Amino acid sequence: MKKKILICFGTRPELIKLLPVILHLKSNKNYRVLLCNTAQHKGLMDPLIKFYKLKIDYNLNILRTNQSLASILSKISAKLDKILEKNKPHCVIVQGDTSTSFGCALISFYHKTKIFHIEAGLRTFNIFSPWPEEINRKFISGIADFNFAPTQTAKKNLILEGVPKSKILVTGNTVIDLLHITLKKIYSNSKLTNFYKSKYNFLNDQSFKILISVHRRENFGEGIKNIFLAINKISENQNIKIIYSIHPNPNVKKVEKKYLKIKTNILKINNLNYMNFIYLMSKSDLIMSDSGGIQEEAPSLGRPNLVLRNYTERPEAINKQSAILVGTNKKKILSEFSKIYKSKKIYKKMSKKRNIYGNGKAYEKIVNQINKIL
Q1: 76, 115, 135, 179: which has the fewest Cβ within 10 Å?
Q2: Where in the chain does DSSP place strands (E)?
Q3: pTM of the predicted protein model
Q4: What is the count of structural domains for the chain?
Q5: Are residues 35 and 151 in the same domain?
């Protein structure tokens, strides 16, 4: 009899990091893999789901405009409770620190179902940044039956919190797995490569290209405003081309429309899917973002990264001098950018490719451990 594995996700970053594990588990005839999409990020995931031809067994469809965190959690809890009661899976897999991950882990705990936590142990040691993610992941680690830590630092964090070593495995981060898969797909296919060259022909000139993305909840309002004001200042140099990836969250779009200037060297691009974004990352000279995943991907691509957050749970890239934590202070953003842009020595050091977060085989370690446990 096949053992049931329920894999839960609701945001694009979760799906990106779960995809290598999903595909590997689905190829194992000993398992029946059920996919539950809470649709916390509805439209953002559709291209990935279609591209990899995933069958979504349960779509909770919880997305509502400006809904509260309590509302998200209550909807997930009520709907997942019924799914677990009906299927009685042998384990539930969650990734990271979203409201989806926490909600699904909590209800699984109530059902006494095994919980496997991928990307466990990341900590800023500030429960309000990132918010609510920092507290979500602490709670998940406390009730998980097994924690897959991406780095030795993450493992140490878990041990300090009392998680037994026997429940932790350092694997690397699965985001690097999919990064390698995606780059290979793009650059090993001449038709696809030429398609992207044509689609993003503005990359073909000699300008210094900066890729920007912002979306963090704790940056809403004044933080994102300061980021856009810094971008406006940077854009005064006509040799610089800024590529801004528009985020659909209304709290971001509202500030962007008010404060980010309309200029010929500020290109605003909407609806970037994962493959498109990876291609743009690989062709940019510098990345500025408040994303967690980008902090992991940028070093593997050899792209300097200004982290637009006040705290980070990924200190490894900072310590290896692949990234600089600049927060949302306009003066600091401009100061650190100026150093990178004007100094060939600093830029060269930050541009060195480093496998800080794994070599692209994290999914194998995770699946092998799941096989042992089940």
Answers
A1: 135
A2: 3-9, 31-37, 58-59, 91-95, 114-118, 146-149, 168-170, 208-213, 240-245, 266-269, 286-289, 305-307, 323-325
A3: 0.89
A4: 2
A5: yes
